[in-house]
Design brief:
By secondary structure, this protein is of the alpha/beta class. The chain has two domains: 142 residues, Response regulator (Rossmann fold, 3-Layer(aba) Sandwich), CATH 3.40.50.2300; 237 residues, P-loop containing nucleotide triphosphate hydrolases (Rossmann fold, 3-Layer(aba) Sandwich). 39% of the residues lie in helices and 17% in strands. Helix 1 links the parallel strand 2 and strand 3. The C terminus is likely disordered. The structure holds adenosine-5'-triphosphate and magnesium ion. The site of magnesium ion has 4 residues, from helix 6.
């Protein structure tokens, strides 16, 4: 059943209503919120009669507003359902939760998840007003309550080890299997192949953005990106060979920060020859994935990358992935030898993808679009990165009390 949206100014057109959307499951609260929004002059806002589940369904195919107000009264496991909502909305959306329980424990759990506020019915007018003002940016918001997407940088220990292939497959699965919004940046400005992995020709989107870093607004970013899936976008360029294309760490980090507001994951395909600025960018990523193959040169350089990345950044995590770009052959280094040489465990190993690998490089389709052993291994990696953030109900007593 379609959800009826009621713009607070009485208009029939809901297309432009991007400021505040509320899903409320009782008439009284619905009227209070609509009335308050109208008085605040928030005419491009909408109040709908519906539950948290309706909101999840709605935002699966609609863009997120700036502020979302949801009602968890009908939800048995509000934290779990809110996690599902977070997965279909942009990270930058400010969420105010309304419920029927006045429970400080639940409030604390929700705020920890990045929810802006939890208010129990009947709606306390003053608290609601303060909360909405903060969410709309009229009052300052505390740092802790701002959600941002995670940054993943992928680095090949050497050229041709499959870094771009793995990034495109991981991202495809994070976007398609796990429903998160993903933006990828190909930092190989002259001859990057991230677009080709999705059968797309590069535009000049990334260069345009880097030359106009003063206007990193969502519309400009959206226009510069190539859409390769419902929730997957790429920023890349194809600069002339031989041109001067120095990337500055500041400019890239600023772009990453802008994308983090709109996407759950920002993936960086790092250049195969890394300079100090790009090393700085990789170091500031939340997660760095170093890709190694089973040969001596690659293992030597993987050790150098890991060493450099782990120096001076206690917050970042570095994963080591062994990628088999060739069929098993005699003389290749064994896993145990690689781990001994690097003095650490390989976190994931990706098997050789025979036909799927060839099809992927010729037809421009990530091999994870079809099943196979390599897809299974990449899926394990993608799911490992996202984590199965199922939040258990806090106390059994709470659940029993609500059911009884
Ligand atoms: N697990 C795999 N099985 C089979 N082929 C693979 C596998 N991983 C990558 N390849 C193939 O290896 C080749 C090189 O991969 P890719 O371009 O992703 O490497 P790269 O590290 O990004 O290279 P560059 O240094 O040029 O950026 C591609 O043809 C790709 O299809
Ligand atoms: Mg590459």
């Amino acid at each position: 059943m379609a959800i009826a949206l009621k713009p607070v100014d009485g208009s029939a057109d809901t297309a432009e209503y991007r400021e505040v959307i509320a899903f409320i499951d009782d008439g009284e609260t619905e009227t209070v919120i609509a009335e308050y929004l109208r008085r605040l002059g928030q005419n491009n806002s909408v109040v709908a009669r519906g539950s948290l589940k309706d909101a999840i369904k709605f935002f699966t195919d609609h863009e997120s507003p700036k502020v979302l107000i949801v009602d968890v009264s009908a939800s048995d496991f509000p934290a779990n359902d809110l996690e599902s909502l977070a997965n279909v909305c942009e990270p930058s959306v400010q969420v105010i939760v309304i419920g029927k329980r006045n429970d400080i424990g639940l409030f604390r759990d929700l705020v920890q998840m990045g929810i802006q506020d939890y208010l129990a019915k009947p709606l306390p007018y003053d608290l609601f007003s303060r909360s909405l003002h903060q969410a709309l940016g009229i009052l300052p918001l505390s740092q802790a309550r701002q959600r941002a997407g995670k940054v993943i940088a992928i680095l090949g220990a050497r050229g041709g080890v499959g870094a771009t292939t793995l990034l495109s497959n991981i991202s495809w699965l994070i976007a398609e299997d796990l429903g998160r919004r993903v933006a990828l940046i190909d930092l190989n400005l002259q001859s990057g192949t991230l677009g080709l992995s999705f059968n797309q020709k590069s535009n000049q989107g990334l260069s345009e953005i880097l030359h106009n870093s003063d206007r990193l607004d969502p519309l400009f970013l959206e226009r510069a990106m190539i859409t390769v899936g419902k929730r997957l976008r790429i920023l890349s360029s194809e600069e002339p060979l031989g041109s001067a294309t120095e990337l500055r760490a500041n400019a890239v980090n600023e772009l990453v920060r802008a994308l983090q507001k709109q996407f759950h994951y920002v993936g960086l395909d790092m250049p195969s020859l890394i300079n100090s600025d790009m090393m700085e960018v990789a170091k500031s990523a939340d997660l760095r994935i170093v890709v190694v193959t089973s040969d001596i040169a690659s293992v030597r350089d993987a050790a150098r990358y890991i060493n450099e990345l782990d120096t001076g950044n206690p917050n970042g995590r570095t994963l080591l992935v062994l990628n088999n770009i060739l069929p098993p052959q005699r003389g290749a280094l064994k896993l145990t030898k690689i781990e001994a040489a690097l003095n650490r465990k390989v976190d994931y190993e990706i098997p050789y993808a025979k036909t799927a690998g060839i099809q992927a490089s010729v037809m421009g389709k990530p091999f994870s679009m079809q099943n196979g052993t390599a897809t299974k291994a990449v899926r394990k990696l993608a799911h490992g990165l996202v984590g199965n953030a199922v939040i258990k109900p806090r106390r059994l007593l709470d659940v029993l009390r609500r059911k009884g």
